Amino acid sequence: MSTPNADDNRDASTGAEGTERTERVEGVQGAAGEVGASGRLPDSPAARLQALFEGHRLTPTQRRIAHSMVRRASEVPFLSSVELAELAGVSQPSVTRFAVALGFDGYPALRKHLREVAPTEQSAEPGSYNEYQQAVEAEIENLRHLAEILADPRPVRRAGQLLAASRPLPVLGLRAAASQAYGFAYFAAKVHPDVRLLHEGGTMIHDRIDAAVRAGASALLCFALPRHPREVVDTLAYAKGAGLTVVTVADSAFAPVAKVSDLLLPAAVGTGLAFDTACAPMLLGRVLLEAMCDDLPDAQARLEEFDARAAARGLFVE
To answer: Is the dihedral of CA 86, 145, 62, 278 positive or negative?
Structure first.
């Protein structure tokens, strides 16, 4: 569907690259320094692409291109510059400038390099799929990418330890990410003694963070999805300044929240429909719940206690 995205969907505009603020690509936050002995993702086409971008100063438009390439790593070596521009929602000259920023003479040289460092068989074109099926297939690919990342479970286990140890545990999610935060907080409250949902912005959100810190909080979990509200970035910066360790589930290692996160766990969103789809971030949230339960010794007892109370109240239909 080609209709423009709404306020809580991704921002398709690129702006003038000459005036865009550049930021250094530091790799997958949390996966860097946490994943494997080398600090990288398990070897895969996506991981090799990620390594190619690390250490380069990229504009927001160029980071959009890099993000799109990582998400579709198996296809990128076979795409023309026009096709990559369409995939990333940028102009064809932007793709050329991106290749030059990485140190290549142009996009053909970059594509040649990609075929050498990330060889893969070209995927069959799903020409018989309609637009709805294509959206589902894209989400399946996002889940496969998430499975690659989770091949090394140490970042998620570390996140689970941080979340389990924080009493209380603030969980932040604004606008498009509010439902992800609510879902996590709903289940987490069944095993964690004090979960505080922060799903509405405004002037009081800093007050609520201050209150959590005074009560003993040591970490904050954030769900951050496109479009990324400026308020989320500001809130995470405030939380870090208040002494909280920020664990973030975001759509990309290149998301604006990366610079204000201590541990970032990426899970791509689907962009094929009018509104983004977030199956991978939701599943990653459930994985984090599992990891947190592993570090809460009374988690099983709390669940059994809840089940007993629910049965006594006739809470659920059998």
So the answer is: positive
